[in-house]
């Protein structure tokens, strides 16, 4: 008969494989939709021609086949081999060896844990790099979305890796230290620490971290800027600054968002969202393919009305609270399980050896995998509900028609395929599909826009 460690290992493997098989099944359902859909939905026939529909269909197919390849290779083959052969244990053992040679104390779990986190991040980066390169320079390039040069990509990856280590290694050190000295209720102090760090990062990210990767410029004076300020004022949004981020150097995809937790906030628009990237038509940096692309001012305002709806309806605050509750529950579960020896023995550690970081990773990634899946499903449902509510908020401000036009334009510019299998969409999409959102907008507005707020 199997002992407790073997039962733990095989239970984890079975669940992870079953979850991956479910995702593969759902992806295959969506592939069937891609293959069988040959005509533009009637709701989009006035704006989407057959050529654009075919491009979106092929883009979706390529992404789906790529996701299947990645799932089979990473989630079924590599992950299971790492579990069976104790990959994390090998990295931990190597961390102990290296700590001795570079002058660290191999008996200090804080020092060895920091080195373990660094080595794990290096391996993770190397393991993920071929997929990033393929996705950027093959898949996205093939369909016209990649705007990165090889040099830009390399610099981007180096900056992301270095910044990641600057943030994660000190956090790992404090994490281990709190568990060691926190006593019976260390999970409370752990939660307070991680909550404080996460809120701090949310606050400083737009000001100090995001500019490391992308160039931001103030939105030029003009009708759009004044209209955005008027819109923010009408809903009492504390708008401080308006920026345009040069996302076109990275990708042709479009977006907009606001940042800031306390006090004055900023709105950021991707340059790809704006007509001519928000630049004068005669700007020498504009290519012929850039000219005329983007949303009209009213459509940009409609997108922002939707985003402001998330703020006004408290969706941002609710999500933060939900995340913090989840963190507390995870740390509570960790405090109850991390001393259970078979968890460590299941991945190859000798009896009695229980490194804190490994215990946390095993519990969160594997033991709590069913719980994580359930929470992800619930959050997906909640997110879709929030999106409908934000759309309704924009409709109440009189932007139903413009928001519908913006959704269609973004769908076309991003080569989003409009037809989805309902099971695939329910599992994977945090946003309703464009057809679902258009139908809901049509229903709630009853075909009439209210006068826009002044």
Automatic annotation (TrEMBL):
InterPro entries with a match to the protein in the record: CAXX_Prtase_1 (IPR027057), Peptidase_M48 (IPR001915), Peptidase_M48_N (IPR032456)
Cofactor binding: number and manner: Binds 1 zinc ion per subunit.
Record field: catalytic activity: Hydrolyzes the peptide bond -P2-(S-farnesyl or geranylgeranyl)C-P1'-P2'-P3'-COOH where P1' and P2' are amino acids with aliphatic side chains and P3' is any C-terminal residue
Family: Belongs to the peptidase M48A family.
Localisation per UniProt entry: Endoplasmic reticulum membrane
Domain CAAX prenyl protease 1 N-terminal: 30-215
Originating species: Anopheles maculatus
Binding locations of Zn(2+): 306, 310, 387
Membrane topology category: Multi-pass membrane protein
Name of the protein described by the UniProt record: CAAX prenyl protease
Domain Peptidase M48: 218-443
Enzyme Commission code: 3.4.24.84
Gene Ontology terms: biological process: CAAX-box protein processing
Predominant localisation class: endoplasmic reticulum
PANTHER family named in the record: CAAX PRENYL PROTEASE 1
Pfam family membership, one: Peptidase_M48
Gene Ontology terms, MF aspect: metal ion binding; metalloendopeptidase activity
Role played: Proteolytically removes the C-terminal three residues of farnesylated proteins.
Cofactor (UniProt): Zn(2+)
Keywords on record: Endoplasmic reticulum, Hydrolase, Membrane, Metal-binding, Metalloprotease, Protease, Transmembrane, Transmembrane helix, Zinc
GO CC annotations on file: endoplasmic reticulum membrane
Regions crossing the membrane: 12-28, 64-90, 110-126, 160-180, 186-208, 320-338, 358-382
Active site (record annotation): 307, 391 (proton donor)
């Amino acid at each position: 008969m199997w002992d407790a460690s073997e039962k733990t290992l095989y239970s984890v493997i079975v669940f992870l494989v079953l979850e991956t098989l479910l995702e593969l099944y759902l992806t295959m359902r969506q592939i069937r939709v891609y293959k069988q859909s040959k005509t533009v939905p009637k709701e989009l026939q006035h704006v989407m021609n057959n050529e654009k529909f075919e491009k979106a269909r092929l883009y979706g197919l390529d992404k789906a086949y790529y996701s299947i390849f990645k799932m089979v290779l990473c989630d079924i083959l590599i992950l299971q081999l790492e579990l069976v052969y104790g990959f994390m244990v090998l990295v931990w053992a190597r961390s102990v060896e290296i700590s001795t040679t570079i002058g660290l104390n191999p008996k200090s779990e804080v020092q060895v844990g920091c080195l373990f986190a660094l080595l794990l991040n290096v391996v993770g980066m190397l393991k993920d790099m071929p997929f990033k390169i393929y996705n950027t320079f093959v898949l996205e390039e093939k369909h016209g979305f990649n705007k990165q040069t090889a040099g830009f990509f390399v610099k981007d990856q180096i900056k992301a890796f270095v910044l990641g280590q600057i943030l994660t290694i000190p956090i790992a050190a404090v994490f281990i230290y709190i568990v060691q000295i926190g006593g019976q209720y260390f999970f409370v102090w752990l939660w307070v620490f991680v909550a404080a760090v996460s809120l701090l990062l949310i606050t400083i990210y737009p000001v100090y971290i995001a500019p490391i990767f992308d160039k931001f410029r103030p939105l030029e004076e003009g009708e759009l800027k004044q209209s955005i300020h008027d819109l923010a004022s009408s809903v009492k949004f504390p708008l401080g600054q308006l920026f345009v981020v040069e996302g076109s150097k990275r990708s042709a995809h479009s977006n907009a968002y606001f940042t800031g937790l306390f006090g004055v906030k900023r709105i950021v628009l991707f340059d790809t969202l704006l007509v001519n990237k928000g630049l004068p038509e005669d700007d020498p940096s504009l290519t012929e393919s850039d000219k005329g692309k983007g949303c009209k001012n009213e459509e940009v305002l409609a997108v922002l009305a939707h985003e402001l709806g998330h703020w006004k309806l408290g969706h941002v605050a609710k999500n933060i609270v939900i995340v913090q509750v989840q963190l507390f529950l995870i740390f509570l579960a960790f405090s109850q399980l991390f001393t259970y020896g078979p968890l460590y023995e299941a991945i190859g550690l000798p009896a009695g050896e229980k490194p804190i970081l490994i215990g946390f990773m095993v519990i969160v990634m594997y033991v709590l995998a069913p719980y994580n899946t359930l929470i992800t499903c619930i959050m997906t449902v909640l997110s879709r509900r929030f999106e409908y509510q934000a759309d309704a908020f924009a409709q109440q401000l009189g932007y139903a028609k413009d928001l519908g036009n913006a959704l269609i334009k973004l769908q076309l510019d991003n080569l989003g395929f409009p037809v989805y299998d309902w099971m695939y969409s329910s599992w994977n999409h945090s946003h309703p599909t464009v057809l679902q959102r258009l139908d809901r907008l049509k229903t709630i507005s009853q075909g009439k826009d209210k006068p826009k707020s002044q």
